[in-house]
Amino acid sequence: MSVDVDKSAQPPADAPPPHPEPIKAIPVRHYGRWVAAVVVLALLALLVRAFASGNVNWDAIPQYLFNTDILKGLRNTLLITVLSMVIGVVGGVILAVMRQSKNPVTSSVAWFYVWFFRGTPVYVQLFLWFNLGLVFQYIDIMPIYKDEWSDFMTPFLCALLGLGLNEAAYMAEICRAGLNAVDEGQTEAAHALGMSHGKTLRRIVVPQAMRVIVPPTGNEVINMLKTSSLVIAVQYYDLLQAAQNVGRDSGVVVEMLILAAVWYLIATTVLSIGQYYLERYYARGSSRQLPLTPLQRAKARLAGGFNRSAGGAG
Amino acid sequence: MTSKIVTSETAGTSGGPMVKAENVHKSFGSAHILKGIDLEVAPKEVFCLIGPSGSGKSTFLRCINHLEKINAGRLSVDGELVGYREHNGKLYELRDREVAARRRDIGMVFQRFNLFPHMTAVENIMEAPIQVKGESKAAARERATKLLDRVGLADKAGNYPSQLSGGQQQRVAIARALAMEPKLMLFDEPTSALDPELVGDVLDVMKDLAADGMTMIVVTHEMGFAREVGDSLVFMDDGVVVESGHPREVLGNPQHERTKSFLSKVL
């Protein structure tokens, strides 16, 4: 440590004041914001009043929230969502790899698949699965299984195939984008180290592609949860079907629709929270410091309250 | 930085040249990049490749570990053809797995580092020994730690690449290549993407490696390094070898007009 004698000997009067006075100015008044806020609040109040005074039996909603039929419908909705997504993700990965294959047959089959399943409404696809019995009267896998198509194709299987195979087309595009997003230098570096194609894909490329794949896949799960309400077309007993049945039987039709909406909202909220943590996991290494989770932030704030000098946690 | 990494057996087993190129040609579509390269790299030699950008020096380097496929000529590493097997006078293309097996013995360091961003420094180094050689995690970690110490980054083992400077990333990349105990190291402009004050650390590691007897092929613009450490130097331009010889001779007394005009711009 050395001190420059000349500088320290300078008279302090020459130096600028260490803290210049902060600027004092009259801020701009945003009258428009106040007006807009008042108008929006007024409209909201009107809406709430309309619903509250309307012919809706609000008490029925908490009363039927945990109704066994409703819960069964909810369970089926979650089940079909999860299983369809599994089919979608696995199918999507296979299709994405097929699309990138050097074999022209596999890549064009994958292209055709995506073209067909993305180009037709999923509602129509569900009906097609349901009515495929007109084409195939029997299902006959010679030595193992033989049955009438209508017995084999249960509402559950119709819903599963309809939603899952449709989802695979969308997942294929998401996976392809993710794989393409990984820098080619990563593959080269792995190859240069003597890693095989498969190992390079599994250990180096896919984990990095996940950062691009996970966020849109989370959206797809939430979308799937809602789209699954279309399985009413194939007589599958999902949440919406249950709500409608209960509503019809008990004379609370609108109330049960609102109740279904409440359950859908709860489920999508839980899924969004899960997605946040999943994205955070796959972001490791890509940003210098991971943002704190809400829980960690709350803890840090609590610790800061007791001991102000402590820095942020983590 | 005293411990030796290079053992005597890493100097090659064939007894012949480490790398031998005979009339090597390479085209990308209609662009003819390499137009007949002939050269030999001896074991334990530090072989420098210089030349203007687009002269084909990086392409040639990438051909050596089969990241690019040559179109004509013969290219062999330690007596074995790159990418092919010769049997009864016929060439057979190697399968992916066989190509990967040959690459294990050839380390490569890239201009853009290409560290795996989702792994820490020590995990980057451990990855290939575990996945390719089937080494145990403990053994791989032990050697990775030694290598990190050797490149002067023992305290950065748990850092992700994004938390390291360019020079530190490149040193981790060198350690990652060394973890496979290669008999040949390829350097593709290893300091070109670095801030000037970080170049020295990387060059120091490379000098150490050269002193230990590693066979190295270095594509570089660092004429000082070539003069000080290099055993041979080749000047390439427009896909051909224009001039070759000892670095001090070629750099100090260039014979060809193209070499002279290139050196007058970079020296």
From TrEMBL, chain A:
<keyword id="KW-1133">Transmembrane helix</keyword>
<dbReference type="InterPro" id="IPR000515">
    <property type="entry name" value="MetI-like"/>
</dbReference>
<dbReference type="Pfam" id="PF00528">
    <property type="entry name" value="BPD_transp_1"/>
</dbReference>
<comment type="subunit">
    <text>The HisPMQJ complex is composed of two ATP-binding proteins (HisP), two transmembrane proteins (HisM and HisQ) and a solute-binding protein (HisJ). The HisPMQ-ArgT complex is composed of two ATP-binding proteins (HisP), two transmembrane proteins (HisM and HisQ) and a solute-binding protein (ArgT).</text>
</comment>
<keyword id="KW-1003">Cell membrane</keyword>
<feature type="transmembrane region" description="Helical">
    <location>
        <begin position="34"/>
        <end position="58"/>
    </location>
</feature>
<feature type="transmembrane region" description="Helical">
    <location>
        <begin position="256"/>
        <end position="278"/>
    </location>
</feature>
<dbReference type="InterPro" id="IPR035906">
    <property type="entry name" value="MetI-like_sf"/>
</dbReference>
<keyword id="KW-0813">Transport</keyword>
<feature type="transmembrane region" description="Helical">
    <location>
        <begin position="78"/>
        <end position="98"/>
    </location>
</feature>
<keyword id="KW-0472">Membrane</keyword>
<feature type="transmembrane region" description="Helical">
    <location>
        <begin position="110"/>
        <end position="130"/>
    </location>
</feature>
<keyword id="KW-0029">Amino-acid transport</keyword>
<protein>
    <recommendedName>
        <fullName>Histidine/lysine/arginine/ornithine transport system permease protein HisM</fullName>
    </recommendedName>
</protein>
<dbReference type="GO" id="GO:0022857">
    <property type="term" value="F:transmembrane transporter activity"/>
</dbReference>
<keyword id="KW-0812">Transmembrane</keyword>
<feature type="domain" description="ABC transmembrane type-1">
    <location>
        <begin position="74"/>
        <end position="275"/>
    </location>
</feature>
<dbReference type="InterPro" id="IPR051322">
    <property type="entry name" value="AA_ABC_Transporter_Permease"/>
</dbReference>
<feature type="region of interest" description="Disordered">
    <location>
        <begin position="1"/>
        <end position="21"/>
    </location>
</feature>
<comment type="similarity">
    <text>Belongs to the binding-protein-dependent transport system permease family.</text>
</comment>
<dbReference type="GO" id="GO:0006865">
    <property type="term" value="P:amino acid transport"/>
</dbReference>
<dbReference type="GO" id="GO:0043190">
    <property type="term" value="C:ATP-binding cassette (ABC) transporter complex"/>
</dbReference>
<dbReference type="InterPro" id="IPR010065">
    <property type="entry name" value="AA_ABC_transptr_permease_3TM"/>
</dbReference>
